[in-house]
Amino acid sequence: MSNNKVSEFLNLDKRLTELDLKLDADFCILPENIETADKKTDLIFTESTTSVNKYLKQKNVNIEVLTNGSLQLRQRKSIDFYAPLIFVGFTLLQENSNILSVGINVLSDYISDYFKGSFGEKKVKLELIVETKKNEEYKSLNYEGSVEGLKEVPKIVKSMKNE
């Protein structure tokens, strides 16, 4: 059982300008507090950012991390898996959306390995920021559910471009 919620997201292009940051990739890990940070030195990433980024790159998934040079990581005491906040750019969505599917599949493999040997309910929390209109409109997809349910995420994201 999974819970998916699509909602409007702030104009990321303007927000990055406010923080004096530049997004150079269409598939990118963002700080989890991108909406609320007062300055770029306040940006905080989910604790899984480093290991997920490394794993995706090892599996030839080209993803970048939006950083100001250093990574501040937030640790959680939870059995749930908190995936990093992921940005999906307009160009990737329009021209090469299979990268998203591959990236989510590889992430699913990583999370499955993460949960190996653990007992009880295994829950994944993932948020994707999707650019639905170039430099203008952004939407957020919050996924909370099983690892197996992640396979539906690319379909949901692709449908967001048509809303």
Describe, in plain words, how this protein is organized in 3D.
The chain has one domain (3-160). Helix content is 30%, strand content 26%. The chain has five helices and nine strands, in the order E-H-E-E-H-E-E-E-E-H-H-E-E-H. The protein has helices at residues 12-18, 49-58, 90-95, 98-115, 153-160, and strands at residues 3-9, 27-30, 45-46, 64-65, 73-74, 81-82, 85-88, 124-133, 137-145. The strands form two sheets. Strands 1, 2, 4, 6, 7, 8 and 9 form a seven-stranded mixed sheet that branches. A two-stranded parallel ribbon has the order 3-5. The longest helix is centred in the middle third of the chain and has 18 residues, at 98-115.
